[in-house]
Amino acid sequence: MTLHHYVLIIHLLAATIWVGGHLLLAICYLPTALKKKDPHIILNFEKRFEKLGMSSLALLIITGIWMAYDFGVTAETWFRFSSGFEKVVSIKLILLLCTFICAVIAQLYIIPKLNIYNIKNMAVIILTVTSIGVAMLILGSTLRYGGI
Q1: 17, 50 contact by CB (below 8 A)
Q2: How many other β-carbons are positioned within 10 Å of the β-carbon of residue 103?
Q3: SS3 146
Q4: DSSP per position, 32-46
Q5: Interval 4-51: pLDDT, tens
Q6: Alpha helices in the chain (DSSP H)
């Protein structure tokens, strides 16, 4: 196996944790929290998942950029959209920025005041970040065939 293959394995494991954790939150915990109007269900999950989830996200960023460079998609070619690989990397970077924006909104505006009246705002953030994660996973899978 090559170094690239090991980096890919780390990337896939980190994606499993990041996307899987958000799917678990969105499918199992969020409906219960909304039904019971109990924001503590979400807060407890977030507290337990945060270290592992954020570590996974950091690994995803590092390994993703590493593999992009392995494929010849360097910072100079980001957002050119001229090849299948450049398109995938560029779209994933845009989605990463969207994830970051959602995280900032959640951390600064929603979570500090999370209650039964604004729990639906948190649901929107959770579903958005989960959807972005799934989209990034699907985009990454296209690289095996040259991207989109």
Answers
A1: no
A2: 15
A3: coil
A4: HHHHHT-HHHHHHHH
A5: 999 999 999 999 999 999 999 999 999 999 999 999 999 999 999 999
A6: 3-24, 30-36, 39-70, 84-105, 119-141
